[in-house]
Design goal:
Layout: H1 22-30, H2 38-61, H3 63-73, H4 85-101, H5 105-138, H6 147-177, H7 189-200, H8 209-237, E1 243-244, E2 247-248, H9 250-280, H10 305-316, H11 325-350
Antiparallel strand pairs: 1-2
Amino acid sequence: MSSEDVAGKRTSETAVSTIVNLAEEAKLASEGVKAPSHAALLSIAKSLVAGGVAGGVSRTAVAPLERLKILLQVQNPHSIKYNGTVQGLKYIWRTEGLRGLFKGNGTNCARIVPNSAVKFFSYEEASKGILWFYRQQTGNENAQLTPLLRLGAGACAGIIAMSATYPMDMVRGRLTVQTENSPRHYRGIFHALSTVFREEGPRALYKGWLPSVIGVIPYVGLNFAVYESLKDWLIKTRPFGLVQDTELSITTKLACGAAAGTVGQTVAYPLDVVRRRMQMVGWKNAASVVTGDGKSKAALEYTGMVDTFRKTVRHEGFGALYKGLVPNSVKVVPSIAIAFVTYEVVKDVLGVEMRISD
């Protein structure tokens, strides 16, 4: 992602239009910088399209594993139907058929397309702003982003994207786990949103938001930091003849994306389990919701993030924080890899120039 060298020229044009860079845009505007041109706005639109396509393609490719992961995270410990990945997929196929494997995918795509678009675009713009500020502070116009700065840019992008689309993620979790025996059947994303809003209040749409924000920092931040740092390292060192000229092959990019996804999801996974369980609170007597403490089958309520951690570990053991990790590991590696590669391919097709470091 090559840089726009705006540090040394006060009249350089910028395409900053996201929350992350609003303050900087105002500063540059006050110094006489022109508003973003039509070409710059078109580039922004293409960036959003590329991010959206990347998210939709990657999530659809691994939808069965995504659903199985969520089912394992909130599975009723008194009525365990399956433990393994293959066993779980076979059970879903046998009881619900092909549609069961993709249940909730439409809602997931409806959420992930804008989420991915905002996330990739926010990362591009946050990286530009952070790089500009870093060069100003160091006085080095040729300075490049460090892994720590990339981590910060990735975290900013993740928080912005997650917060903007969180209500859709919340109802997606419920749509994914509802079964024929669930007392409340949501007919679709809009019905679920309106029902939760009406019956549980607007705050219910943000249940589990705090652990999501905390989890975004290591997950998305490490995804971008590891991916970009690996690419830079490979280009500079050229080990095993993997790099020709200054470009990485699709296979190498896939490997970088896979490594980034593995690191990020492993660190942040317990927070994802906590988020899913908090999202289920208030959905009374739902068949797939976690219940009881091993003795009583009464619904287990959580009052907050810390309470969820405490009760999960106390009643089910520390290992419960990693329920669904195996299908998630199988899912997240190709998902992240496909997302990154699809994003760059779509950018190339659309002719978008948005590299952050030369």
